[in-house]
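Worked problem 6 (solution included).
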Amino acid sequence: MKRRLLLATAAALMALPAASFAQGMDKVKACFIYVGPVGDGGWTYQHDLGRQALAAEYGDRVDATTYQESVPEGADSERVMTQMALSGCNIIFATSFGYMDAVNNVAAKFPNVKFEHATGYRRDHANVSTYDARFYEGRAVTGTMAGLMTKSDKIGYIGSFPIPENIQGINAAYLAAKKVNPDATMSVVWAYTWFDPAKEADAARALIEQGVDVILQHTDSTAPLAEAAKTPGVVGFGQASDMAEFKPSPRVASIIDNWAPYYIERVGALLDGTYEQGATWAGIAGGEVEIGEITDAVPAEVKTKAQEVRDAIAAGTLHPFTGPLKKQDGSDWLAEGETPDDAELAGMNFYVEGITGEIPN
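Solution. The predicted structure is:
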């Protein structure tokens, strides 16, 4: 997967062209395309829970039984979405960033089919919408816990691909950890995969061998937690799903992506004739990013601090990126009290000051 710098993504957050589908529908066929297996325990599993919730919500009015799992980003995804459109799908949810080109290519050929693309920014056609979650808000919460719980002052982060979505999370987690623990450092390992348990385990093992005792991840499997479980004193966090099988430790908390309300809302709009092209980016306040149970393996004072950060973000009184902040190269980024706008966040392609290493091409 090629890196996209996204420096021109201001358009992603600008006003959308008028595009509505005013006619209601008696029944909707909703289809889903997944980058990983439904049993990954993380990202795809959580999207599939949203699909199941959609089916339960509307009963016979919605056919949400069609999905294809483990579809690689690229030509394969374009083929699968074309087949879905030909099979009568009224709305197709494409649930990985790398499906973006394929979504827009297929949407051009099927203007009467609605396409919803998760974490993307391109809406080249009136029948393409995008939806995303402010994962970086959750990273600020888990980063706070990481900074307070590390005994070695070494925190590890497993990234999937060096795209803004991942870089936001790395920066947010580091800043939150540094805020509560000035001695904290962060090492980043790129797995170059969304889902590959073997590679994810290797990344976790490499970090542990460096002395890391807290691991965060932006990959989809439970493999990093399984690896952490082999080394006493190493803790981590559930990613995308709760990953509750690793409670109370090494999984001490989690970031949960709750897609069900969005799926129910969008298909409901098709049914009642209120569907319009959209672009959403919800977070903790909107309920799309949830913090899973903080276990008893976490000291009471750490739990309290994490909850305070979560609640402040939800209330809008705390932004994970609040100046003064500098970029890794020492140049000024945000002035005192300043926060970035969404377009700037969507194009983030730099580490903040203090993180070592380079963002790979």
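Discussion: The CA atoms of residues 262 and 288 lie 8 Å apart.
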